[in-house]
Structure formats: C-alpha cells, structure tokens
Amino acid sequence: MTELEKGPQGRRRGRGARERILSASQQLFREQGIGHTGMDQLCAVAQVSKRTAYQHFSTKDELVTEYLRRFDPDVLPGVFDNSELTPRERLLAVFDVPTTGPDDLTPLCPYIAAAVELNDPQHPARRQAHDYKRAIAARLADTAREAGAADPEQLGEQLALLLDGAAARTRVLNADAFRTAAAIAAVLVDAAIPR
C-alpha cells in the first residue's frame, strides 16, 4: 500500500472500507456483544477513521441493522432451497450446524443476541431480528406443509423454538446441543407427518 492510500495513523482508506467495517462488526459483535463494542475499537479493527465509518453508517444502530441483514438474507437457502432433499430431510437439515471442536462452537444466534442486548422494541435491528425469526418459522411451516404435516404452522413453531433453544444451550454450556435437538426434531416431524 502506498503512502497515498493510507489514512490517519497509517490506516487504510477508500476502497473496501464499508466491507471492512461490516467484517469487523461481524467479528466483534459476535465475540464480545454489540454493547461492549465501541466505535473506536471497531474502526481500529476495520482500519478506518471514525469519519469514514460514519460516512458509511450514520449511526451505530444503522451498522447493527446492516450487520444482521447480511447474515442470512434468504433464510437458510442452502437448506430450504435444496431440491436434492425431501421436505422431511430439509426440516431436519436445519439442525446440521457445523462446529469444528469444543472450543469453536457456533456462537449464539446473532438475532437472539441482538434482541437480548437491544432493549428498545422499535430499534431497527430488533425489528430485523423479529422479522428473521418469523421468516425461519414460516419457512419451516412451508416445508412442513410440503411434507404433509397435519398442522404445519405448529410444527414450524416447534422446530423454530427447538432451533433457538439449541443455539442458546450450545453457547451457554459450551457443548453441542444441535445433535440432541436434531433427534428431538425427528420425533416431532415423524409424529406430525402421517405415514
């Protein structure tokens, strides 16, 4: 990088700043929480000035909302849109959450974490979390309907609750709860879908 491409204190500037800010927010918000991440730290990790950060995101709230929006905009497309799986298999594939080891378990769902940290029900990120969780339950219900479930909305809500519970339990206990959740989900799915 040439001296002309460096900003204050030798930081990078210009091209890619927005992506670096979002990447830094993803890392820091998930590691230490939204409330514990200050803009100074975020800018240092993203290698941008505060001025540059606020040119891309006028407030931290706007940044948090965009951070959530970018996680999974299509609601698990790799699962729900996988035509190689039967509807029953897609319902259970939601619980195939990869973990690489006991020290690198999936962090708490970012939508749950944001909803817990942000007290204002009208906060745009809180609404984003609400909409995403509703979308997950709706996709599960649609897939349950496709599988022939007697009450697809109920099954969708049950599986959504089980998924969120597994995410929280995995984080709190530092243990993989998704395998147990998958076994419970199989029982629920088989009970709801007539043979």
From TrEMBL:
InterPro entries: Homeodomain-like_sf, HTH_TetR, Tet_transcr_reg_TetR-rel_C_sf. Keywords: DNA-binding, Transcription, Transcription regulation. The keyword GTP-binding does not apply. SUPFAM superfamilies: Homeodomain-like, Tetracyclin repressor-like, C-terminal domain. Residues 38-57 bind DNA. Residues 15-75 form the HTH tetR-type domain. The keyword Transcription regulation applies. It comes from the Bacteria. This is TetR/AcrR family transcriptional regulator. It comes from Kribbella karoonensis.
